[in-house]
Design goal:
The complex is a heterotrimer of chains A (271), B (274) and C (414).
Chain A: H1 2-26, H2 43-50, H3 52-85, H4 89-104, H5 107-125, H6 133-158, H7 161-169, H8 174-203, H9 206-211, H10 219-225, H11 234-270
Helix pairs in contact in A: 2-11, 3-6, 3-8, 3-10, 4-6, 6-8, 7-8
Chain B: H1 7-11, H2 14-35, H3 46-50, H4 55-85, H5 88-99, H6 106-117, H7 122-129, H8 141-166, H9 169-177, H10 182-193, H11 195-211, H12 214-219, H13 227-234, H14 241-273
Helix pairs in contact in B: 2-14, 4-8, 4-11, 8-11, 9-10, 11-14, 13-14
Chain C: H1 2-22, E1 31-38, H2 52-64, E2 68-75, H3 78-86, E3 94-95, H4 99-107, H5 127-131, E4 145-158, E5 182-185, H6 188-199, H7 208-221, E6 225-229, H8 232-238, E7 244-248, H9 249-258, E8 262-265, E9 271-279, H10 287-298, H11 300-310, H12 317-320, H13 323-332, H14 336-341, E10 348-349, H15 356-371, H16 377-413
Parallel strand pairs in C: 1-2, 1-3, 5-6, 9-10
Antiparallel strand pairs in C: 4-7, 4-8, 4-9
Classes of the chains: A mainly alpha (271), B mainly alpha (274), C alpha/beta (414).
Amino acid sequence: MKILSRVYMWVVFALLYAPILVLVIFSFNDGGSLSAYTGFSFRWYGELFRDSVALQSLKNSLMLAISAGLIATVIGTFAALGLDRMRNRYLKGAVNSVTNIPMMNPDIVTGVSMMLLFVAVGGVLGLQDILGRWTMLIAHTTFGLPYVILSVLPRFRQFDPSLREAAMDLGCTPAQSFFKVELPQILPGVISGFIMSFTMSLDDFVISHFVSSPDFQTLPLYIYNQTAHNVKYSMYALCTLIIVTILILLLAVNFAGGVGDRTKRRKEAVK
Amino acid sequence: MKKKLSFLERAAAVPHMVWAVMFIVAPLLIVAFFAFTDTKGGFTLSNIQSLFSYSHIFLVSICFSLVATFFCLLIGYPLAYTMSRAKPSTQKLLMVLLMLPMWISLLIRTYSLMTLLDNGGLVNSLLQAIGLEPVAMVGTGGAVILGMIYDFLPYMVLPIYTSMQKMDNRYLEAAADLGCNSFQTMFRVVLPLTTPGILSGITMVFVPSISTFYISQKLGGGNFDLIGDTIERQFKYPSTYHVGAAISLVMMILILISVAVMNRFSDEEGEIVV
Amino acid sequence: MKKILTTILIFSLLALSLPLFSACDNGGETVTLYVYNWGEYISDGSEGSLDVNAAFEAWYKETYGVNVKVNYSTYSSNEDMYAKMSSGAASYDVVVPSDYMIARMIEEEMLRPLNKENIPNLQYVDMELLFGDQNPYYDPENAYSVPYTYGTVGIIYNTTMVDAADIGSWDIMWNEKYEGNILQFNNSRDAFATAQFKLGYSVNGDNEAEWREALALLTQQKPIVQGYVMDEIFNKMENGSAAIAPYYAGDFFTMYGDNEDLAFFYPQEGTNVFVDAMCIPKSSQNPEIAERYIDFMLSEEAAVANAEYICYASPNKLVRENADYVAAMEEIHPDAMEILYGTEELELQFYENLPAERLMLLNELWEDLKIESSINVAIIVMALVIVFACIAMGVLLYVQKRRRRRYITTLWDA
């Protein structure tokens, strides 16, 4: 039974990774084709680094994801704090449901609704070119918010209020007690919220498709717009690089975390 | 005993509330406004009426995403269970492996899947190599479903896995002690305990699959028009914004209602469990 | 330790995100020129070609002493470009729409008349040859646009899958022999045109019955079509997933480069010819630099590089008379020059900008064709089974729960 489930798990993972593996292998293909492998070469990697528009889009994507992630994390963390302390049940319920809307709503509806809003505001203000990096930033922050709140809120619930009271008794101001006592405790939730909203922003195509302007193009938009002619094979090279980078980063973090766990366990054992 | 809240605690949620009103509530109101007006700004019901000609698109989309969600659950649940039973260090690796595809653009993943499944693609070449007839996959409904499963499976596994991790192992031991066989344990203990995870997984898969337009375009060969495709097409010309807004509004209401119903269901179940 | 690390992390993230905001001001002397073009539609320095935008920046710096940064972005269809432009993203200086879209944009006063003194290279554009007239049909006063490329639609087929006897006409796209191996445009205008050419109608006609007849023909074709696609054509034709596809002549050469079994013909009933031309939107902040950009695109070096990269026909005399260009094209395909430029004999039709009600009709008919999804019975049955299973399970659970509750209450009473 156990072996069977193991096998099942690895088969699913293998299927999940088959298209990605093909993509990685063919990024080293000498010819421009996804069906015939004509020889090993770094040709597409060379092309990628000569493609200034692709690199600019990558930069835009990263900057947008980081900025939107940071703003969402700050607003979201404080929102979680406020929600945790809120006593008015109805207000709390209302805020909670509104917060979850961007997560429950299909991307396409979120994108369309934001575009209509921006265009309407642009019409009122007489701005012909309201869409752009700022509208992208607003949209990406908005759909990142629920992920931050959802990952921070449980941490506040787990937090022992007596610690806060102790801090206050020892003379901390409320702000000090939040930043010095609570924040370090909820930090894992904050970080995972940031990573979630960062990931969502990086991967988003649908919402960006509606609220972007041509002067600020992210990577998914760039890829989509190539589809009038042909997707460049250097994009596969880019994806391979992204996978490798993320894999190394995540494994490093996990490995470091593993070491930390082990030392912690050892310390506990010593006690 | 109620302690007085500090200013920080009272004001903390205000920026978020302002943001939410401006960028979550206001856009939805504008969609509703567009859905009930014509190009000149006058009130009309004709957009809503014109939806009847799209009714079978709604039906087809719902069917497609239901089937995709079902298979995601069927594949994802055992996967999440196996993952949660693995060694802690392996679990971390598996999580990384599961999250990794989400970091590559969905467009590229879908495109790559399409070239794999195409008539002259790798899968069919393999089939031919072992002497089988090639199968036309791209352009069929099955390929669209496969694409949805492939793209959204991690969204199903993650919440289920999380709820399994939270599950106290002692429940399983207790069940075994009280004479449950593994089958009974699964259905009487594990399944009810992980219902919240299942429900949130279902939402996380159902919603993006009902509204996707890239997957149906690429893997369905443009033969299957889902709601997402229809909405996207309406927003190419300002004159059809209003019909697009009406379709979006109806879809949104349908989804929010079903999510609300499911959440109720999950709360009730949660009470029973506890 | 952890704290320090987190602080460093947060600060580095902040530092990384700063350029997003600082990129807004132009930093003094550098002027940004926003160019909005089709995807993959300019020589960009890959595979040893000329990076035209970089060359323009260098040339401009040298000639006028001003730093110009080209912000180059792309779209995938005229309609996408138009949607962006009319929905409030008009901050660009050069756009390259197709003919009918230019006519519409002129009509809606979205474009700005060009100052031709800044575009001396315009003399090399052979208007007479292209349009038989000094003024293009989409721009009656020749005031708003400068042709960038032009091209024709033809049928690409795989010689290993298609009988030579069947080629020559649009009929091949309705030939049931090739069921499941035919691709059709996923774009209303081009798709309807295939049917209209087959019927011998005008692609700009104002007879509603003709359009409906074309729709009937497309509906009839639907069961034997493998898919409605655009860019997927490249992959599908290259790896033999489909046998027949109508597409733009220039793109045939790209596909031929990867699969030499492919061939191309112009249907005898006639076909569409289109022009993509450079224009300056009314809202442009730097029209003069935009005009010089257009001028630079007409210079021999840039035009040849683009023509070789895109493989579409060039309206530029300098390109056609360039021996290197001819040699390069003939290396790609022996008949390349003939296919691209030998189009005088063909029955060619341009797309005109359709009047509003005709456009609505076209949208409506296209909607009808697309909505007519071949309903997949298997999937609907599966969905129904799932729904029933869920309901059954719900009822079962409910009954069980009530039975258990009753059992508990009985115990309690006892």
